[in-house]
Specification:
CATH superfamily of the largest domain: MFS general substrate transporter like domains
Number of domains: 2
Shape: globular
CATH architecture of the largest domain: Up-down Bundle
Low-confidence stretches: 19-25, 407-418
CATH topology of the largest domain: Growth Hormone, Chain: A
Number of strands: 0
Largest sheet: none
CATH class of the largest domain: Mainly Alpha
Number of helices: 18
Amino acid sequence: MYGQHDPQRIALELMIAESAALIASQMPGRRFAARLALFYAAVFGTVGTYLPFFPVWLKAVGIDPSWIGLITAVPSVTRFTVLPFITGLAEKHRALRGAMMATAFLAALGFSVIGLLDTPVLILIAFALTACVWTPLVPLTDGYALKGVARYGLNYGPMRLWGSAAFVVGALACGLLVEVIAAKHLIWIIAGMATVGALSSLRLQPISAPGPARVMLPATSLLRERGFLTIMAASALIQGSHATYYTFASISWQGAGVGGLTIAGLWSLGVIAEIVVFALSPRFTLSPALLVVLGGLSGLTRWVITAQQPDIAVLSVIQLMHGLTYGLTQVGIMGLLVRHVPGHLTATAQGYLTACTGIVMSSAAVVSGLIYARYGEGAYYAMAVLALAGAATMWFGRHRADTPYAAADQPQSVASGG
């Protein structure tokens, strides 16, 4: 038995008390991460059901192909028009969590209303309104995540990987359901997933800033700051270099005699590699800027090899590089935003980033279509140039991009924070 004033007993009690205090201090961060991971899963699970099967539903309810093309183009337009306005407005009024909840519920309502329609004009109008609140959801969530990263000292990758995993599960589950339900009912799977996302948003917790900001910078100041412009340009160029892959990969593989199941497997390999990178990201020791450079150089390598029309064995290995070209770039960009962008502008920065990437991706898709029509797989060489340009942009601007905003341009202003 220890005596009342036994030093060993006192030391043990102090150790227990310190351990309990440490666990208690970590609980809000763990709770934040778990709830956000669930929300990421619901949001990307909706995307996983929408992308492959929304056009199938449109066709099933009798919509003409020309109208299908017009309707499915709507989200691309809202990404660089309405989206930055909503993200900026939410952050200006310090209502990021509320905006996520509102857009999640409105998106679920929108998809449910769309399911009741069967004429192209009404579907176009309803989907345009739905896209206005649905497309800002991912950048709002990323902005919210970065505030949590700064506030609780968390890692972005392990939270975000659940979105990628849910995308795969959602697409596969919807694919299985296609075999047992009529295609005209697919919209209710999308609406159902959107409803899960809306309900899970209710569990998102408010984020309190770790300290008061001395200066609240205007949102438009980001567009005049060279460090942020470097981050935005590098991200848009490297992620935009995936345009040919997203648009023509399945078509070219099918033309080469690759079966549907194998094509699905190739796509899944890429997403699995992305998940692995997100999971391992807390162990990365390179600076975020160098991760982006590596992502761009990986894109250069990936697209040049893909242009050679490799056999299925080589193609399978190349598909694993998606973890580098997309995943590593995403991790690096998020790391730079946490370091560089003031905490009260993270969602606005995400809005600008998404808008710029949308413009580059759409433009690259149009250009790659023109090249693909004449040179086939040669379109990937243009994507290799984009990836290299993104890597070069980050390499030459890495010091400014990796420096806190306040230190880079405005010594008197607030540094990045939660």
